[in-house]
Amino acid sequence: MYRLDKKAIAHVLKLDAKGFLDYVAKTRATICGKYPVACLLGCIKPAKGELLKYYTSADITGSDYSVAVGYASVLFR
């Protein structure tokens, strides 16, 4: 899960809307709000993204990572 999320987050940090959507389509990653995220990435240039925090629900609950949800907090300046 982290590997999938890490690559999606990399596209977000680069403000790469097309790469982000292509990656989500290719991997079938279930990212809630993928289209609003892509829209934001297209609207905020020239900015820089900084990952503030990433964790999964399994990190908190100790449950199985195969059914976990990932959360990323990104700051754009």
3D architecture notes:
- The protein is built from four helices and two strands; from the N terminus they run H-H-H-E-H-E.
- The protein is α+β, with helices and mostly antiparallel strands and 77 residues long.
- It has one domain (2-76).
- A two-stranded antiparallel sheet has the order 1-2.
List keywords for this structure.
two-stranded antiparallel sheet; alpha+beta; 19% strand; 4 helices; single chain; globular; 2 strands; 77 residues
Order of helices and strands: HHHEHE
- Rg result: 13 Å
Total DSSP E strands: 2
Low-confidence stretches: none
Number of domains: 1
Strand percentage, roughly? 15-25%
Largest sheet: 2 strands, antiparallel
Give the overall shape: globular
Query: Looking across the biggest beta sheet, what order are the strands in?
Result: 1-2
N→C terminal distance: 27 Å
How many H/I helical runs?
4
* Classification by helices and strands: alpha+beta
Mean pLDDT: 93
- The proportion of residues forming helix, as a percent range, comes to 40-55%
Please specify the SSE layout and strand pairing.
Blueprint: H1 2-13, H2 17-27, H3 34-43, E1 49-56, H4 57-61, E2 70-76
Antiparallel strand pairs: 1-2
Helix pairs in contact: 1-2, 2-3
